[in-house]
Design brief:
Blueprint: E1 2-3, E2 17-21, H1 26-31, H2 42-50, H3 58-67, E3 70-74, E4 76-80, E5 90-94, H4 97-103, E6 109-113, H5 115-124, E7 131-135, H6 146-153, H7 155-159
Parallel strand pairs: 2-3, 2-6, 6-7
Antiparallel strand pairs: 1-4, 4-5
Helix pairs in contact: 2-6
Amino acid sequence: MRSGCGLSPLISPGCRILILGSYPSVLSLKAGEYYANPRNMFWNIIESIFSIPFTLPYNERTSLILARNVGLWDVYCSCDRERSADIRIKNPEPNDIPWIISQYPTIDVIFLNGREAEKGFKKFFPDISIATRYLPSSSPAHAVRLSEKIEKWNVINEIN
């Protein structure tokens, strides 16, 4: 199944950090929300590192993450994929990451949520000079304990 262009970037002036996933899950696309799958650990990680309760309504969580100068988007705009697994992504088309960087010049680091995001970013954007850092995927398919993910993701606080 060919997926259309994913979610719009969640970003605001002053964002210093951009977290890029690979492509939204089926549940996220349906809800129109980043990391809408309740099994995805993204919002649990955000709660731990920023004290933003994952139980808050989505619009409140996103307002609070933006207030921390953190934006969200995905490396891919579209792809062929069955269900939501990154390992099933075929024929990805990139989002316009150079455009977002030009529109938000305060971004000084890009965090890549998982290996597929890292792989796609390196493939499509080898000339982007902004610092990038890999983070273990927040996906439940990435079999690492939540505590380990939180420990690795806490590097965001060192920059923010």
